[in-house]
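Lab notebook: predicted structure, single chain.

Context: the supervisor wants predicted structures on file for every construct in the current expression panel, including those that have not yet been purified. This is the next one on the list. No modifications to the sequence; it matches the entry in the shared construct table.
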Amino acid sequence: MTTQIEIVPYDGMNKGFLSQTKTWVNNVLKKADPSSTPPYLRLTIWKNIKDVQEFYYQEKEDLGIVTGEESDFLATHEAWRGYSRIHICHEKVKRVQDPVIEGVLHHEIGHALFHGSIEFYTFKFTNRL
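Prediction complete. Output recorded below exactly as produced.
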């Protein structure tokens, strides 16, 4: 595994959940072909839905991004800044069973492995469009 992983927890986050999250992420990445893993992956664990929504609103505003509502999901992936970022909302998952959370993270890491760079998020349109 050659991916540098940065996990950004919220202040006061449960250390058990943080540790379990690290394990789930590492379990997927250690099985992946190193040549297909992104060089850097950031996983942010947000405390609540409001924080996730504020983050996405500001990112979209700063970068000129137009998408749907990302906070409807347990976790999301994007690479708008040129590297893979996974966002998970602790408020949304705290009553969800661990195997489901693990599956959600595996799903989002799959996105990071398959389309974790900026090239997958930019489009050129012709004048006619």
